[in-house]
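Marked as duplicate of an earlier ticket. Keeping the data here for the record.
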Amino acid sequence: MAAGETEAHAIAVHLDKLLTQRGMTLTELSELVGVTNVNLSVLKNGHARAIRFTTLTKLCEVLECQPGDLLTFDG
């Protein structure tokens, strides 16, 4: 892979859906999770290349969900 290229992945992020279901904004989630709005936006838009387990844990705690509710494999 050449410099600047990104590898495609088949992981779908359902953060928008979960936020809507809970009547929560990205800004509110950012404050509760302790992750910047920008980083959550990158995740929400499917552009994240990785996620820390600590961040995933906090997202699941705040959103009261399981990792499989937030991420799915679309392969």
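See parent ticket for discussion. The domain at 11-73 is CATH 1.10.260.40 (434 Repressor (Amino-terminal Domain)).
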